[in-house]
Design brief:
Radius of gyration: 17 Å
Helix content: 25-40%
Largest sheet: 9 strands, mixed
CATH topology: Rossmann fold
CATH architecture: 3-Layer(aba) Sandwich
Number of helices: 8
Number of strands: 14
Oligomer: single chain
Number of domains: 1
Order of helices and strands: EEEHEHEHEHEEHEHEHEEEEH
Strand content: 25-35%
Shape: globular
Distance between the termini: 31 Å
Length: 268
């Protein structure tokens, strides 16, 4: 489950919703007070994607946090916020307008696993310069599902033909990516085998960056980046440690949460 972002400043907006200042106040996000909330995973993914230009596809965008952060970071970027949940998609549209990004953000409420739905929505394959995604972390039946429908949808992958939902999600995301385009994802380290199977020859310059809650602890998140069509080999990037022994954020993690730093992928 994603950790709440340290320093997220919240205030009520209406019953069941709050408006939160995220990434050091750079974005104002309206989101449900219950259910899935923007957290550390979103901050890490936004920082991992760098400063992309052109069209960004945020697959599983939720309330639009990552795609909007990237569009805000570069005036030469626009974002497709792709979200199956119509209520979250509506909030993504509200957040685009609230942050003055409505001219450069398009909200698409659809199932990304269905090519027909993508085409009907005008979402053509191989047109995104950058794809970012924070897929649900669990397969159906692997965990006890939350009674909150929004939280359940955010955490549990929908079933897919062939019985490999994460692989289907990644392949659908990569179908949107243009040759030479960049890809960034966050997931659990124990999903690495499935991730590599899904990426198989679709990406090169693949980089894996382990994220640890504390020094000496096992990695609890994995950041993945790559370039479509590249022939560069896979590499392991330097690990990111989130907390000091006393629980405070490390300097690097704090700067990422405040929107002041990007993830350091190290030299290729």
């Amino acid at each position: 489950m994603p950790d709440p972002s340290p320093g997220l400043e919240s205030g009520p907006i209406a019953d069941g919703f709050s408006v939160d200042r995220w990434l050091g106040g750079r974005l104002a996000l309206v989101q449900p007070q219950g259910g899935h909330r923007v957290g550390t995973d979103a901050a890490l993914l936004a920082a991992a994607a760098g400063t992309p230009e052109g069209r960004i596809a945020d697959v599983g965008a939720g309330v639009g946090a990552v795609g909007l952060a990237l569009a805000q970071r570069s005036e030469r970027a626009s974002a497709d916020l792709i979200e199956i949940d119509p209520d979250l998609a509506r909030l993504a549209g509200i957040n685009a307008a609230r942050n003055g990004l409505q001219a450069r953000a398009r909200v698409l409420s659809l199932d990304v696993l269905r090519p027909g739905e993508r085409r009907e929505a005008g979402l053509a394959d191989e047109t995104a310069d950058c794809v970012v995604t924070n897929p649900p972390f669990f397969k159906s039946g692997a965990v006890r599902v939350s009674p909150n429908q929004g939280r359940a949808r955010a955490h549990v992958l929908p079933s897919a033909e062939g019985g490999a939902p994460l692989e289907a999600w990644i392949r659908a995301s990569l179908a949107l990516l243009a040759p030479g385009g960049s890809f960034a994802m966050i997931h659990r380290p124990d999903a690495l085998a499935a991730i590599l199977a899904a990426v198989d020859r679709r990406l090169g310059a693949l980089a894996l960056l382990p994220v640890h809650a504390f020094a000496g602890a096992g990695a609890h998140r994995l950041l993945i980046s790559g370039v479509k069509g590249s022939k560069a080999p896979l590499r392991i990037a330097p690990a990111l440690i989130l907390h000091e022994a006393d629980g405070r954020l490390t300097g690097e993690a704090d700067a990422i949460h405040r929107g002041e730093a990007l993830v350091e992928w190290g030299a290729a």
